[in-house]
UniProtKB/TrEMBL annotation:
Family that this chain belongs to: Belongs to the TacA antitoxin family.
Keywords: DNA-binding, Repressor, Toxin-antitoxin system, Transcription, Transcription regulation
The keyword Repressor appears for this protein: yes
Name of the featured protein: DUF1778 domain-containing protein
Superkingdom of the source species: Bacteria
Taxonomic path: Bacteria, Pseudomonadati, Pseudomonadota, Alphaproteobacteria, Hyphomicrobiales
Pfam assignment, any one: TacA1
């Protein structure tokens, strides 16, 4: 005897003004997403940010001292990063680069 499949998705219903729907639809289209996919991705991203903002980082006193000591050290040059920052962006033309 087979068991009925359990649904793993849960519906979410909202009432929004027409202007909000139009803006969401426009943004979804720009991203190549459906309205549902766009709203879901945006809501999950906002939820993750809210959760991350509320998290505390706990360190032992020794680890905290090591962390503070690393922050206090002078910055070190990273050659690969310096090279990357010297490169022109792909959208920059010779004319735009000369003005900078």
């Amino acid at each position: 005897m087979t068991r009925a499949a359990t649904r793993k998705d849960h519906p979410l219903s909202m009432r929004l003004p027409e202007a909000d729907i139009a803006l969401i639809d426009r943004a979804a289209k720009l991203r190549g997403h459906s309205r549902t996919q766009f709203v879901r991705d945006s809501a999950v991203r906002a939820a993750e940010e809210a959760v991350m903002d509320s998290l505390s980082i706990r360190l032992s006193p020794a680890d905290f001292e090591a962390f503070v000591a690393m922050l206090a050290k002078p910055a070190e040059r990273v050659p690969a990063m310096a090279e990357l920052l010297r490169r022109r962006a792909p959208w920059e033309t010779t004319d735009n680069a000369d003005r900078a």
